[in-house]
Amino acid sequence: MFAGLDLGGTKIQAVLVDVEGKVVSQCRHATPQQGGPQVIIEELFATLQEVTRMVNLEPSALAGVGVGAPGAVDPVAGVLLQAGNLPGWHGPHPLAEILSKKAKVPVFLGNDVQVAVMAEARLGAGRSYRSMLGVWWGTGVGGGIYLDGRRWTGRGAAGEIGHIVVRRGGAKCSCGRRGCMEAYAGRGAMELKARKAVARGEKTRLFELMESQGKDRLTSGVWMKALKQEDGLAERLIARAVRMLGAGIASAVNLLDVEAVIIGGGLGTRLGEPYVERIIQAMHPHLFVSQRPPDVRLSALGELSGAIGAALLSEPPAAGTSSHRSSRSVKGEV
């Protein structure tokens, strides 16, 4: 049995899967907002303990653990190099090695969206395609690429579609640069924009809804409720996000010419098919070959795609193939 941990800016989703990829248990914890890498890794371990305890196992009984983490990773060394959407995470940190020593089991590390797209390619909405682009719309905007039936990771940071520049000299992104698609479409960036609008006196129910749900951030569910109530600010910020997603995704399609685009992530999954259609419409004017657009599909695995994909990192490679996975055991060997 394998475990997968999907580490995000606001939540840690854990699953246990069997050898056929079937989910046998799952749980979710909040991502610590203070304390940096040490506290976040402690919470990863606590989440792993809970998901294994649900089926009367200890983490050490697993065949392996995979972690999907946001930002740039070194999958060979098991190091999370940069993660702008994780609170207090600054600089490289050997996440896989530290967690492996706690769990007493091999740990494998990958980019969160890359592994989610891998899960969709093998088990979900991408099964019938040889090439595809995954776009995960959540706290940030991440991406993953499949070419000729294989995952393309580049040097560890391939697919970071959120950092395609959609407006030169535009809004400042969490990465420190300006004009990135994530600076307009990421949920974190939209919340900052909403707070500035409220400070200027603009009316919105976004923060009232947030407080009524006991949240301290504008979650995907809060945005969904605000849209259902036809909140003007929410509608305007989401519309702006869709326009930028359309331009950025179309630019990536023009470069890669993939068969399909899969839309996932917390916000993408929550808003669902109606917003997939809106993204398609926003893409169309920017496509070089508009007569032959890619198929655009909603994630079939939903909010579990990242955790399932992380679990797949733990599977042994097929005979005769090489692997770029990293395993840090309790003794520290690779």
UniProtKB/TrEMBL annotation:
<protein>
    <submittedName>
        <fullName>Glucokinase</fullName>
    </submittedName>
</protein>
<keyword id="KW-0808">Transferase</keyword>
<dbReference type="GO" id="GO:0016301">
    <property type="term" value="F:kinase activity"/>
</dbReference>
<feature type="region of interest" description="Disordered">
    <location>
        <begin position="315"/>
        <end position="334"/>
    </location>
</feature>
<keyword id="KW-0418">Kinase</keyword>
<comment type="similarity">
    <text>Belongs to the ROK (NagC/XylR) family.</text>
</comment>
<dbReference type="InterPro" id="IPR000600">
    <property type="entry name" value="ROK"/>
</dbReference>
<dbReference type="Pfam" id="PF00480">
    <property type="entry name" value="ROK"/>
</dbReference>
<dbReference type="InterPro" id="IPR043129">
    <property type="entry name" value="ATPase_NBD"/>
</dbReference>
